[in-house]
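Worked example

This section walks through a single chain of length 433. The input is the sequence exactly as stored; nothing has been trimmed or padded.
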Amino acid sequence: MNRRKKKSGLTALITIAILSALTAGCAMLYLVYGDKLADRSESSLDHVPGDYQAASPEEILVESLLEPQVEIRVQESGDEAGEHIRDDELSTYRSEITSDPLRSYCYDHLDPADQRLYEEVYGVLRTFGSGRLLSTTDPDQLKKVFSCVMLDHPEIFYVTGYSLTKYTRNNVIEDIAFSGKYTMSAEEAAAAAAQVEAVADACIANAPKDDEYEKVKYVYEWLIHRCDYVLNAENNQNILSVFLTTDTVCQGYAKAAQYLLNKMGIFCILCEGEAMGREAHVWNIVRIDGEYYYLDVTWGDASYTFNEADPDAPTPPEINYEYMCVPYTEIAGTHLIMETVTLPVCNSMRDNYYVREGVYFTDTDDAQLASAFATAYDRMKDTVSIKCADPTVFRDMERYLIDREHIFDYLRGNSKVNYIKMQDRNLFLFYLN
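Given that input, the structure is written out below as tokens.
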């Protein structure tokens, strides 16, 4: 620890530790004043140099998603053992797919040929089928449509990939037979689905009934409170890891959010891409009162990224709201989006967490600051977030609250203040205790 005597007689202690949380370069700084603050107006915060260095993202921020396990065989035409899916079967599958518009986003954005193939793939997977001949002879088309089915249907948790047999003549594919790769029997899947639904129904029973924003916030918080990020957890690519075991990774978080919100009548789809420009990552897009937002529950679970570099540093909050209901401009610096189908445009801040909670600042508004801190105290919160609209507001806020020490105008009897400063995110997080 570094100590420096101040002219006023107050001792300021600043310890710098690393919070390798949501972007590279997030630092935790905590300032501890002396026993008295009566003459604090005569003092200034003296930033003692520390060993701070920009935090590089932890490997666990992203993980390699399991690519569909694809097994390919080649046989001569004439040896086909399977049969094409009948029109009456397709009609049944089509009715299931289109019965709930919240579970058919990818299907709705495919051309008719791809939609027919989607119906075939969906039907095979739903019935634990194998060896059915498809309407396509293009393995790449099949790969795309298989992904679309899995993106739309988190309830198909028992499939890890597929096998296909190419029937060829003179090296030309004449037919493709398709089978799912299943992790359990139909009976086992039905039993697991019943368990999942029971847990989901219990969750939803306590959810807000009307406000769509509050429903999304409830699911975001419920998932983070329930789950731990465990890289090699069993079933971590599907919803069983959330509802039955509670150890999961990004795809488990995202599919569980989709499953719950769809059951609650909220539009929620998966969004695939890369995080920090490194490896595969999955998050969500939600629709609240007609506007679309990105939602990343994985990165909302702040605890799993905390680097305990200093045992004396304050414990980070369990939930980080930086990636709850954000537009593209807020996520573009950390998330690279890869579209299987065209995705909705997310450009609204109306139902962003910070806006809705009254802690989004376009200037150093004294009344808004007083309200933000008072609300946090009244709700018995441990922290209060101050989200600045841009770097200029952030710098002004830092000068006002930290350099000029007006932070103490809003604290209730505190003789010290711990805070996190995330300059890349224009965000302050102040600890109230």
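What to look for: Confidence is low (pLDDT under 50) at residues 1-66.
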